[in-house]
Amino acid sequence: MTGGGVLVAGIGNLFLGDDGFGPEVVRRLVTDPGPPLPDGVRVVDYGIRGMHLAYDLLDGYDALVLVDACPGGGAPGELTVLEVGPDDLGTGEFDAHGMNPVSVLANLGQLGGTLPLTHVVGCTPAGVEEGLGLSEAVAAAVPGAVAEVRALVRRLSAAGPAPRTPTKEPAPARTRRS
């Protein structure tokens, strides 16, 4: 069991254009020079492996940062940072062979886990059609997303362990950046 720390999870399908945003951001977090991430931070490209993410969350992380393409009505490349709690998830059918982050997180309790303090760093895609590579707008947003994840991880790591009891969470905090 990991017993704390922060999990940064890149989510998305590399074969669907801008849906590969999450994997690209976590790749850059690991490969690009920059300030080192704090101790206790694990960075993983989950791609479309929802069951893998669910089982890793059973290790008991203090916080989770999901990085994903998130359609939200903004301009392509617009970054959004959200805090997500249990009440924001509703329900969703879990697919052991796919990746729907809402379903993975909503069904975590059925596997014996507890949703950690969770943030999403999302980017509005230009398109998620079949094809390799990010659009120009989303590729241009990757460095900003890397900086956002680094800052968020530093804040979460400095805050220490979050309470793990299920509580009524406020509506998601939303910050838009372009």
Structural class: alpha/beta
Whole-angstrom Rg = 15 Å
Number of strands: 6
Please report the number of helical segments.
5
- In round numbers, the mean pLDDT is 83
For the biggest sheet, the summary is: 6 strands, mixed
Largest sheet: spatial strand order: 2-1-3-5-4-6
* Uncertain residue segments: 164-175
Q: Give the SSE order as H and E letters.
A: EHEHEEHHEHE
Shape: globular
Oligomerization state of this entry?
Answer: single chain
Helix content: 25-40%
End-to-end Cα distance, whole Å, is 38 Å
Proportion of residues in β-strands = 15-25%
Write a structural description.
The chain contains 5 helices and 6 strands. It has helices spanning 21-31, 50-57, 86-89, 101-106, 136-159, and strands at residues 6-11, 41-47, 63-69, 79-84, 117-123, 174-177. Residues 164-175 have low confidence and may be disordered.
What would the keywords be for this entry?
178 residues, alpha/beta, 6-stranded mixed sheet, 5 helices, 6 strands, globular
